[in-house]
Design a protein that fits this description.
The protein is an all-alpha fold. About 70% of the residues lie in helices and about 0% in strands. The chain has one domain. The radius of gyration is 19 Å and the shape is globular. It starts with 7 loop residues before the first helix and ends with a helix.
């Protein structure tokens, strides 16, 4: 399909990049599931966390599309999915307005979560939006300087899972708008669970950056993949995927979780096939599908772990 064949609706879907939404939803699902297991599940805060996370994800996608085009990072040589701003499918100002509107909706949803979670959630929400904007925007777009992987690991893993758990647990531990983190609302085992989302979420970015390594290098975009090269970027990918599969045995051995948390091991064949592709290919023809499959791996793994947690929590 050429850009001339793309309808306005298709163009906006391309800008929103729905294939990336598992990265926003998976950690919230895990945070809700571990809350069920711990007996602190609260449906409205969990739902608000999910909606807020997805809005921030879409807003960040709009921001990346806009700022990558403005900064000249998207060129004709790029092998990734079509970007609507650089491709001339949507006017830059409209993409910028969509970014602002989506983040604005996230703020509206966040007001409810701030009422429940207080200052800690206010800090999490604001820094999440700022991190999304500054990934490719602002005077020092940190995604261009090798810091994107760290922030994805932090916000799409640790912060998202523990934050989702917190807004549920805090309803039983404190009144409205707490100013500090009440005891027991961010236990260590939940932080460990968050690593199961942090690893595969970061792996998505690694695949993206391996695919774009040569064009990023030419445009001056110093992603971590550009800094590390193919060999060590692939090591990073394997480490991030492997991290997810280390989490269930640790939960069982250290925290006494039930054996049902081993359900994510059923996704190992998908992880193995994906890893073979990433270890041997650099072209968009192979890595574009691999990028989508990495998102699918995150979704499948997270759902399996969530089922293992929920089954144990309700029986």
């Amino acid at each position: 399909m050429t850009t001339a064949d793309v309808s306005r609706t298709q163009a906006w879907l391309m800008a929103a990049r729905p294939q990336t939404l598992p990265a926003g939803a998976a950690p919230v699902i895990l945070g809700a599931a571990v809350a069920v297991y711990a007996g602190v599940f609260a449906p409205l805060p969990a739902l608000a966390a999910l909606v807020g996370a997805l809005l921030i994800q879409v807003g960040t996608n709009f921001a990346n599309d806009y700022y990558d085009a403005v900064n000249g990072a998207d060129t004709d040589e790029r092998e990734g999915f079509t970007r609507v701003t650089a491709g001339g499918l949507i006017e830059p100002r409209k993409v910028k307005y969509a970014m602002a509107a989506t983040y604005g909706l996230a703020v509206v949803v966040g007001l409810y979560l701030v009422y429940i979670g207080g200052v800690p959630i206010l800090v999490v929400g604001l820094t999440s939006i700022v991190a999304g904007l500054l990934y490719t925007g602002g005077p020092y777009p940190y995604g261009y300087y090798g810091l994107g992987d760290f922030f994805v690991f932090l916000y799409f893993g640790v912060v998202a899972v523990t934050g989702t758990y917190y807004v549920q647990a805090v309803t039983q531990a404190a009144g409205a708008f707490p100013t500090t983190i009440p005891a027991g609302t961010v236990p260590l085992d939940v932080v460990v669970v968050s690593l199961a989302a942090a690893g595969p979420s970061t792996a998505i970015l690694v695949v993206n950056n391996i695919r774009d390594m040569e064009t990023d290098r030419k445009s001056g975009k110093q992603t971590l993949a550009v800094k590390l090269g193919y060999r060590w970027s692939r090591v990073e990918f394997v480490a991030m995927v492997a991290l997810a599969y280390v989490v269930p045995p640790v939960l069982i051995a250290v925290f006494g979780y039930p054996i049902t948390v081993l359900l994510p091991l059923l996704s190992l064949p998908l992880a193995a096939g994906l890893t073979r592709t990433v270890l041997t290919r650099t072209d968009g023809e192979a890595l574009n599908p691999a990028l989508e499959r990495t998102g699918q791996l995150l979704a499948v793994y997270s759902l399996l772990l969530a089922v293992g947690l929920v089954v144990s929590g309700v029986t």
